[in-house]
Specification:
By secondary structure, the protein is mainly alpha-helical. It contains 5 helices and no strands. It has one domain: Ribosomal protein L20, C-terminal domain (c-terminal domain of poly(a) binding protein, Orthogonal Bundle), CATH 1.10.1900.20. Helix 2 packs across helix 4, helix 3 crosses helix 5 and helix 4 crosses helix 5. The protein is rod-shaped, with a radius of gyration of 26 Å.
């Protein structure tokens, strides 16, 4: 009985890897083995960086809030503590956006946080 090489499935698997390696330079886009190595590395980085992106955005939001709050003579940690005591539950993304686009309402939040800290 002749040996079945599973040709179509193998070819499809290789074509899929080579499609994913499209745009890579040199043998990394043409030679299957090099392409597979490059694609596997790329997928690892993509998985890792989807998580890193969330951290980086949080750092950016905190830096923006801190800068806006310091212009009003307060620190980030004091501001967040005041908001927590006032039971204002806005996330950092929204606070950062307010600090950039709507400074008047952000200043009212700072006043609220400040009053909560002095009351305690």
């Amino acid at each position: 009985m002749p040996r079945a090489t599973n040709g179509t499935v193998s070819r499809q698997r290789r074509k899929k890897i080579l499609r994913m390696a499209k745009g890579y330079r040199s043998a990394r886009s043409r030679a299957f083995r090099k392409a597979r190595e490059a694609v596997e590395h790329g997928l690892c980085y993509a998985y890792r960086d989807r998580r890193v992106r969330k951290r980086e955005f949080r750092r950016l939001w905190i830096a923006r809030i801190n800068a806006a709050v310091r212009m009003e003579g307060m620190t980030y940690s004091q501001f967040m503590n005041g908001l927590k005591r006032a039971e204002i539950e806005l996330d950092r993304k929204v606070l950062s956006d307010m600090a950039i686009r709507d400074m008047e309402s952000f200043k009212s939040l700072i006043q609220t946080a400040r009053s909560q800290l002095t009351a305690a």
